[in-house]
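If it is no trouble, might I ask you for a protein's amino acid sequence along with its backbone structure tokens?
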Amino acid sequence: MFKQTNKLLSLLNEQLCRNGTEAYLPHLSESLLTDLLYAGLNAPAFSEQQRWQLAQSVSIPGAKVRMSPLMPYWPFDVLGRKAGFDEDYVTEFASYLKRHPHNTTREGPFGTWTAQSNTALGLTTVGQVGAHEMEMVLAMLADVLPK
């Protein structure tokens, strides 16, 4: 679903850029591009990083939205952030993961931490993947937070 949404956004954006915001066909408009972008940004099935990728597919200025600087580095497939959650708390959480001993390099706000391959672990449902990611995060935080 993500690949198709991203492809549609890219194609519509390309068409509008090539022909101006008033495309040859009246139903292809900047308004349609904005609506499709917002639908993708609000889709619960897309990860934070996927939402960021959708926003990057759009170059029409009116369709741009303000995004968290952490989104392109988001290491989770299922775990997300609560709408309206304070960015400072998320940044602090990222800094704890970055300090974990397994991070040999410190690139990005989360370090090099990423979730393990879910298919290799035999995790097939969103619930299983989310529970696994939460277990990993809690274990890592237990290692780096003061006791």
In short: The mean pLDDT is 77. The CA atoms of residues 97 and 121 lie 21 Å apart. The helical segments are 2-19, 30-41, 48-56, 87-98, 126-144. The longest helix spans residues 126-144.
